[in-house]
Amino acid sequence: MKLAILDDYQHVALEMADWSALGRRCQIDIIDRPLAVPEEAARVLAPYDIICMLRERTPAPRALLERLPNLKLLAITGLQHRTLDLAAATDLGILVSHSSNHPGAHTGTPELTIALMLAAIRRIPQEDRRTREGRWQGSLGTQVYGRTLGIVGLGKIGRRVARAAQALDMNVVAWSQNLTEASAAEAGVRRVEKGELFGTSDIVTLHLVLSDRTRGVVGAQELSLMKPSAHIVNTARGPLIDEKALVEALQQRRIAGAALDVYWEEPIPSDHPLLALDNVVLTPHLGYVVEESYRAFYGDLVEQVTAWLDGKPIRVSNPTVKPRA
Fold first, then answer.
1. Which of 2, 78, 103, 161 has a CA 20 to 30 Å removed from the CA of 139?
2. Active centre residues (catalytic)
3. Domain 106-282: which topology?
4. pTM of the shown model
């Protein structure tokens, strides 16, 4: 059996769990770079019987799965993989196994959100750079105390962000298509309409699932409502924001800045206009990239592959599949 571990950018997958027993049963190969889908991914992954992937890093559409004739098991982290065509996997006889629901899986992203928010308004990356260059205090930051944080999407992650912001003595408001006043009140947050949130918030942060309904939920209209002193933070998914409209708003200083962990295209292209802006803090999709999550996820992957090799697959996402021989 040939097993590929995808997207191990930090070269830590084999350290995060004990793969030794699997190593005696499989040839384990590490793929440490993003693969272009479907062409490059199909070429590289065609020999493999088993593929392990961290959720939603490498898409797995039908156009790719159809070109992987040896693939029998797709082991994924997370309960679902929105860029995986589960119906195609089932049609092709590829069993999909998912990881457990880890209580701490939703904690890394809220912490990063707060870190990015503070980095942006205190201009920490810019001042770090100036200090290393021998220059001293080149900018004036602002504080979050008493300011308004607008949360777009008050799910598990949004609620954690709200609690952290309240601990910093921020006023927190929220909006989403389905959010009710009662649900917001349970989180100690005031529900407002979308326009009010963008018009009154000093910082806006996004915590929605990407779908046809939420794609572009922040466009030129919403950005035009924001204060010139306001910042926007996105640690959810890049396409929630109209990227062209955001770049224009930042270039023209119609908003003060942005802090982004996610992009329309990942990795972000080297010629992307965001990279040239000094009022943006950028990180490379680090939301759940913490040791605690990695140990849980890779431990689950070892468990999933072992169970399948033993003929007793666990946490099967497509139980109706007729497995390939």
1. 161
2. 237, 266, 285
3. Rossmann fold (3.40.50)
4. 0.92
